[in-house]
Amino acid sequence: MKLVILGAGESGIGAALLAKQKGFEVFVSDGGVIKDIYKQELAVNGIEFEEGRHSWKTILEADEIVKSPGIPEKSELMQKVREMGVPVISEIELAWRHSKEAKIIAITGSNGKSTTTALTYHIFEQAGLNTAMVGNIGLSYARQVATAPADYYVIEVSSFQLDDIVEFKPDVAILLNITPDHLDRYEYKMENYVESKFRIAKNQTENDYFIYCEDDPEIRNHLAKKPIYSKTIPFTIMEPKKEGGFIANEQLNIQVKDEPVIMSIYDLALKGKHNLYNSMAAGIAGRTMDIRKEKIRESLTSFKSLEHRMEYVATIRGVDFINDSKATNVNSVWFALESMERPVVLIMGGVDKGNDYSAIRELVTEKVKAIICLGVDNRPIHEALSKDTKVMVNTDNMADAVKNAFQLADKGDVVLLSPACASFDLFKNYEERGRKFKEEVKAL
Hints:
This protein is α/β, with parallel strands linked by helices. The protein contains 17 helices and 20 strands. It has helices spanning 10-21, 36-44, 56-60, 76-84, 91-97, 113-126, 141-147, 159-163, 190-198, 217-225, 273-288, 293-302, 330-338, 358-367, 379-385, 398-408, 430-443, and strands at residues 2-6, 25-30, 48-51, 64-67, 88-89, 103-108, 131-135, 152-156, 172-175, 209-213, 231-236, 244-248, 251-255, 261-264, 311-316, 319-323, 344-348, 368-374, 391-395, 414-417. The strands form 3 sheets. A 9-stranded mixed sheet has the order 7-8-6-9-10-11-12-13-14. A 6-stranded mixed sheet has the order 15-16-20-17-18-19. Helix 9 (190-198) links the parallel strand 9 and strand 10.
């Protein structure tokens, strides 16, 4: 069988290694430049590849195509592929076909995916289960299946990956929230994006679990219109539940199966309202797989948060510096500001994906004393938020952004890097942006 892989990032290379191992004839095609380390891997494994172009004839002769989540459907190549009727799948579909004997816990949502994935993995690992954390966080799912198969896979999945599944079926699916993001890929229609997120449950049966946030209006509306087949378990901060996760009397409760998990919200490792949701989702996932309540409680207490996601960096002359570089949309910034209890100097900006900043205006007015704009084009932030904060400063590099923020902060304030934007104007990715922030803070 001839398999063509479009895109040679981590997911494409993982798919190539797995396909080669399973005896497929594999060809990798990337329209851009392939990283040297990936080229070496392809060469060592005897996998044919091309970069800087797409050989249409070779691609269109494939029996099946594995498409990188980054390639939009409206590209000329994909339109030709669809026209010719070549079957297209995502890397998670390929990996799932070769790991059906394992238990799959898949996590999606507009915000909080990485944190919840890492927290769920922490719970499973602390329980002594042979678990791998894969997907948008860490190694690709396919690479893990090819190189170090596990009994449990905790997978962070994006809507783009879900768009090209066929039979992919998680034993446990978690849907955290749905807020506008990537709408440019969904014809600017929210309902298309919602449908895409719900694909996580499309192949589930009554033996599987669907864990969801009952407080999210988009999720509630969709479930009312289109019920799903799996066992649904809600979590909420609004009211007690017979089954599911809820907060009552400042305690987190997980009522799943016959062993309730109850603990004080003040004992949770992750702080902030949004993390109550993430903690409930991860805890419920643990209970569906019969992990004991003591282990879940212990794990929710001992978890260390992720790099670039509300990561504490340092305190300098009474000013706390927090790296939330992974906040690449407005909703993530809303969560970050919502959890702040002290005055904030906010560093934000980058490549604006058509952001609607109105969602954070109230929090900016209430909590932000100054905004440091960090980007090539800072106009959208000025236009949206200049009336909501007294001070706005323009910068086009991290050193100036950090210095300006420190000068404007008083003892007891927080300097928060929470950009609301992609990083591609000044940095390779959000990780590089976050690392640069930490370097400049340490240089103060």
